[in-house]
Structures are given as structure tokens and as C-alpha cells.
Amino acid sequence: MQKSALEQQVAELIVSELSLDDVSAEDIDPEASLFGEGEGLGLDSIDALELALAISREYGCQLRADDKEYTQIFASIRNLSQYIEAHRTQ
Hints:
Helix content: 40-55%
Distance between the termini: 27 Å
Shape: globular
């Protein structure tokens, strides 16, 4: 469950932005599913919108719900971090 520095930052961003008080960023598996009932973090579409805004603010990359790869990008912290790394402007 080794995370890169960016994956750790993204995990911390998720925990703080979504007020996940019962989850520790250190304990989040970078390959665990972010969405879905009963698995991974169990985030929902509202969480995705909040997270996309936070990522835009923090890293300067835009995540649009109409992007055909949106579901894949948000599949895990690892996928999300790879997208940020490739598209960040800050």
C-alpha cells in the first residue's frame, strides 16, 4: 500500500475537502475504489464534484464530468494522481 508523495497529497486532499473524519489519509490504499456502495471510500457524485473543484484549485487541472475518461480517472487515488501529474499547471 505504498503511496507516492502526490498520492499521499491527494489522499489528504480527499479527507480534508470531503470531511471524512472517520478515514485517515495514511490508511487509504492508493488502488482502492473511490466510489461505489460498500467498497473503497464509497464516495458519490456530489463528492466527485467537490473533489474536482478542489483539484482544480490545488493543481490547476480541470476535471469535467463529460470527459469520456472521467470514471477511469476517478477510479482510485493512483489513477487520479497520474491524471493530475500529467495535467497539472501548478
